[in-house]
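thought: fold this chain, then report.
action: predict
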Amino acid sequence: MNTNVDRLAMISVVGEVSHPKVGGSVYRVGQDGAVHVVPGTGGITYNVRVGSPAGGWKGDHLEPGASTRSSDSGDNGAYNTLACVGNPAKVVSGDAKGGEGYVVGTHGGIEHVMVEFPDAVLEELLPGDKILVKAVGQGLELTDFPGVAVRSLDPRLLHCWGIEPDGDTLAVPVTHTVPAKVMGSGLGANTAVRGDYDIQMFSRDVVDEYGLEDLKLGDFVAILDADHTYGRIYYTGAVSVGVIVHSDSYVAGHGPGVATVLTSREGKIRPVIDADANVATLYGRLDA
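observation:
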């Protein structure tokens, strides 16, 4: 596909590995009224990684690999906005210095950037270690498909995704389709270039109909009747595609989070089911 990649800037953004946080109340109250004391956002999650199930954990909004943010709020705004799915990341301080990984996506509210690293790197990481991301992707355009907008995606991943033109429409590999009627927290955000919004998993009928039980972290999914051109809204006929960036939740309105990478108000995206449509698989193709 033809793009404007030769006109995109690559720029440095830096975050630090964050520590998990627990507020004044240790309880998370579920949509059914039950209370839970479980791990949540932040930290280094050793056994919840890209490719792991998005549901079934004794946890809430678990983030894969290393959760990172800048301690400066202004810098963190740039870090979350400019870091794109698939951007290369490198540890630049601490015992794991030199370790390399990639950006999985961003998580709104907590304003984290999640970064996947090999096991050996995670074992040496500590909260506070600095992570350099070579950010590129914002401003990426598909010059032959003006009806499809790109958001927060590394150009290299775009080109190894397996997207195929189909007239004026793009056939896009995804693991699942999701109806907009179950999208919750993050709906109505005034931008889709950072953060995420959540798939509510509380309706058993919808989960079964769309096969959402086997969602994995890092999966690319298509949200039907959802437009993310400027913010996240319900729009009949629109299609948006994003990556699953955090795990399920007990809390009303929440669930596995989706960070936007493609959107078409005119419905110029045709989802094609492909079990391999996961950010780890795409990133692995870069060196193939």
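thought: worth noting. The domain at 5-135 is CATH 2.40.10.170 (Thrombin, subunit H).
final: tokens above.
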